[in-house]
Task: structure prediction
Amino acid sequence: MDKEYVILEIKNKSLKLLVGYIFDNKIKVIYRKKAQLSVPLKDGDVLDVGTLSSDISNAFNSAKEDLKNRYNLKDVILVLPPFGLEVYNSNKITNTVSPTPEINNIDVKNVHFLIEKESVPNSNTLVCIIPNYFKIDNDNTLYRRAPLGMKSNTLSLNANVYTLPFKMVDDIKRAVLNANLSINKTLINTLCIASLEEYNNFKEKSYIYIDVGSKNTTLSLIGNCRVCGSTFFDLGLDNLTESIMNEFSTNLNKATELRDIFGLDESRFAYNPAIAKTIKDGNEIQFTRDNLNTIVNSFVKEWNSYLNNSIKYLMKDNLDSINLVPLVFNGNGLKLKGLKDKILINFVSNTVYFLETNVVGANPEDYASLLGAIILSKELDDNYKQILRTSNQNNNANLTRVGGN
Result:
């Protein structure tokens, strides 16, 4: 059995905690928990660091009680949302230090640090470095894993460098540290999803991953199992709930109930009874399923328009393939009845997938990225032997941009 990984993900409205490990090449979940944030984030912007820290502390204290303190939950893998994600590519080479010469851990560490020391453009900060391949002398082979023990005078590393807005990263990290936790490494949601799909032997190596959330919809362009671009738009399930509240003059609980029970139902029945009512100017006004369908249809139409524009943005360098790129959907927004059918109708020329996992007890809508974080963390540990504790140094050097939002 591999070691247990403690994964903490922070999203706009919630935090998620998962403890798991890999055994016999399968993910095993020991514990999982989801909690709503007392003060939601706004597109990754932390409005109250202290409250976020308290929420994290409460979630971990609860987990310790549930697990009877049998596991050390202090050292966490932090998973961040992809808001403001920018992707760069870097290629570095270092001389091996062994007189043999032979590739060892210090060589891998040295070439990694050459990339880590490169400057990050704009106001972003380096979050993580994901190797694409290693190369050694007189060998055209591209090694996905560090070629430890092989004979070579040099070691080359080609890697993607992932950056996020400094303030978002700094605020969330401070909240985690103030909760008396330590951060083993920091990852990004969509990187973890790509790793999970590769681990699951997903047949598509290049696709667009679309997460339909409560407050936002995020899209990430995946190329050869690596994230190479990302964008998002502020439209999710909460917007539909708000529209129902306004149109039906009802409260949040009732609007959520109507949304979840009926969703989008375009079947036609002669019987169309009232499903909600309100009093206006002393008169009772009734609302039917047809009235609800009109609201949901309007939301889906607007959401689909934003989605199409975002796909065009990600595919701007390859518009000829826009109707052929596979699309992978996930997120709580897919729980809206009828939305999956609309997606299939709207993207008839694309191959459409809805994310699935074969891990018992961890549904993909909530825990896919945390499961992927276990896979990606193990991959990085195998390559770097626990040296990935990014220092965020900014020296004068250049990075080649791959994509961004």
Notes: The CA atoms of residues 193 and 334 lie 17 Å apart.
